[in-house]
Amino acid sequence: MSQLSSRHLLGIKDITAEDIQLIFETADNFKEVLNRPIKKVPSLRDITIANIFFENSTRTKLSFELAEKRLSADVVNFSSSNSSVKKGETLIDTVNNILSMKVDMVVMRHSSPGAPHFLSRNIKANIVNAGDGTHEHPTQALLDAFSIREKLGDVAGKKVAIIGDILHSRVALSNIFCLQKLGAEVMVCGPITLLPKHITSLGVKVEYDIQKALEWCDVANILRIQLERQQIKYFPSLREYSLFYGVNKKMLDRLDKEIVIMHPGPINRGVELNSDVADSEHSIILNQVENGVAIRMAVLYLLAGVR
Ligand code: CP
């Protein structure tokens, strides 16, 4: 197979294990390109891509823009904070105006779950979901699984614990779908108030004791507390959260095994993760960021093939 089964990347739920393997094999090639003195290929010459971000981003936005430029695409950037959205323009009007300037692909981040799915039903361009509210963040899950594969040789058979604010996390949901499609076992761990009620219906293990979760897993993916999405108090204070669920070096020293530490960023140092772990030899956090460019090059290149 050399083509994706879908012309959009809206979520990991909608793609197959074969699609994911194809993205990884393509990303392997692009990673090799990124290590050359000349890091650019002409693959998307004559393709115009709009990055439209209705929510803040550092990693995802920069990574997509770099991926697009490495593929020689023409790139335009839109950020809602300094646009006519502030004057009351609707999402579909904003996007149709951008598309009338002959844009071929749209990379979109939006605070509403389903916003990229809505767009995909209403416009002709390929859509890549760069994070839709608390729903999915497919390229983050792909780069996370790719980084596990790079570090441990394979994803199949590995035990991955996703720790923290699962309730508000699009990274958690996309990771669960991606890791399971690739044959990994997944556990979620956090305070009961930050775990969705019916999470076991996704086939994941649930653990409330973080030390037990660390003992069980090969890889711990630590998530940020998403205060910006929390309308009520889910725990008494950040200090208390950190006391019960913050990962520090002492906890890793108690383990009688190797463990890989991941975090999608941005990190709240001293809350969910201490610097003595984030910057330690266990951490592959910056490898995740590096791999993000190759994964996004692969996704854009492959989607351009199903236009
Ligand atoms: N991991 C991630 O999505 O980071 P940004 O919000 O900075 O893009």
Automatic annotation (TrEMBL):
<feature type="binding site">
    <location>
        <position position="265"/>
    </location>
    <ligand>
        <name>carbamoyl phosphate</name>
    </ligand>
</feature>
<feature type="binding site">
    <location>
        <position position="137"/>
    </location>
    <ligand>
        <name>carbamoyl phosphate</name>
    </ligand>
</feature>
<dbReference type="InterPro" id="IPR002082">
    <property type="entry name" value="Asp_carbamoyltransf"/>
</dbReference>
<feature type="binding site">
    <location>
        <position position="59"/>
    </location>
    <ligand>
        <name>carbamoyl phosphate</name>
    </ligand>
</feature>
<dbReference type="InterPro" id="IPR006131">
    <property type="entry name" value="Asp_carbamoyltransf_Asp/Orn-bd"/>
</dbReference>
<protein>
    <recommendedName>
        <fullName>Aspartate carbamoyltransferase</fullName>
        <ecNumber>2.1.3.2</ecNumber>
    </recommendedName>
</protein>
<dbReference type="GO" id="GO:0006520">
    <property type="term" value="P:amino acid metabolic process"/>
</dbReference>
<feature type="domain" description="Aspartate/ornithine carbamoyltransferase carbamoyl-P binding">
    <location>
        <begin position="7"/>
        <end position="150"/>
    </location>
</feature>
<feature type="binding site">
    <location>
        <position position="60"/>
    </location>
    <ligand>
        <name>carbamoyl phosphate</name>
    </ligand>
</feature>
<feature type="binding site">
    <location>
        <position position="140"/>
    </location>
    <ligand>
        <name>carbamoyl phosphate</name>
    </ligand>
</feature>
<comment type="pathway">
    <text>Pyrimidine metabolism; UMP biosynthesis via de novo pathway; (S)-dihydroorotate from bicarbonate: step 2/3.</text>
</comment>
<dbReference type="InterPro" id="IPR006130">
    <property type="entry name" value="Asp/Orn_carbamoylTrfase"/>
</dbReference>
<feature type="binding site">
    <location>
        <position position="109"/>
    </location>
    <ligand>
        <name>carbamoyl phosphate</name>
    </ligand>
</feature>
<feature type="binding site">
    <location>
        <position position="87"/>
    </location>
    <ligand>
        <name>L-aspartate</name>
    </ligand>
</feature>
<feature type="domain" description="Aspartate/ornithine carbamoyltransferase Asp/Orn-binding">
    <location>
        <begin position="157"/>
        <end position="303"/>
    </location>
</feature>
<keyword id="KW-0808">Transferase</keyword>
<dbReference type="Pfam" id="PF00185">
    <property type="entry name" value="OTCace"/>
</dbReference>
<feature type="binding site">
    <location>
        <position position="266"/>
    </location>
    <ligand>
        <name>carbamoyl phosphate</name>
    </ligand>
</feature>
<dbReference type="GO" id="GO:0016597">
    <property type="term" value="F:amino acid binding"/>
</dbReference>
<dbReference type="GO" id="GO:0044205">
    <property type="term" value="P:'de novo' UMP biosynthetic process"/>
</dbReference>
<dbReference type="GO" id="GO:0006207">
    <property type="term" value="P:'de novo' pyrimidine nucleobase biosynthetic process"/>
</dbReference>
<feature type="binding site">
    <location>
        <position position="170"/>
    </location>
    <ligand>
        <name>L-aspartate</name>
    </ligand>
</feature>
<dbReference type="Pfam" id="PF02729">
    <property type="entry name" value="OTCace_N"/>
</dbReference>
<feature type="binding site">
    <location>
        <position position="224"/>
    </location>
    <ligand>
        <name>L-aspartate</name>
    </ligand>
</feature>
<dbReference type="GO" id="GO:0004070">
    <property type="term" value="F:aspartate carbamoyltransferase activity"/>
</dbReference>
<comment type="similarity">
    <text>Belongs to the aspartate/ornithine carbamoyltransferase superfamily. ATCase family.</text>
</comment>
<dbReference type="InterPro" id="IPR036901">
    <property type="entry name" value="Asp/Orn_carbamoylTrfase_sf"/>
</dbReference>
<dbReference type="InterPro" id="IPR006132">
    <property type="entry name" value="Asp/Orn_carbamoyltranf_P-bd"/>
</dbReference>
<comment type="function">
    <text>Catalyzes the condensation of carbamoyl phosphate and aspartate to form carbamoyl aspartate and inorganic phosphate, the committed step in the de novo pyrimidine nucleotide biosynthesis pathway.</text>
</comment>
<keyword id="KW-0665">Pyrimidine biosynthesis</keyword>
<comment type="subunit">
    <text>Heterododecamer (2C3:3R2) of six catalytic PyrB chains organized as two trimers (C3), and six regulatory PyrI chains organized as three dimers (R2).</text>
</comment>
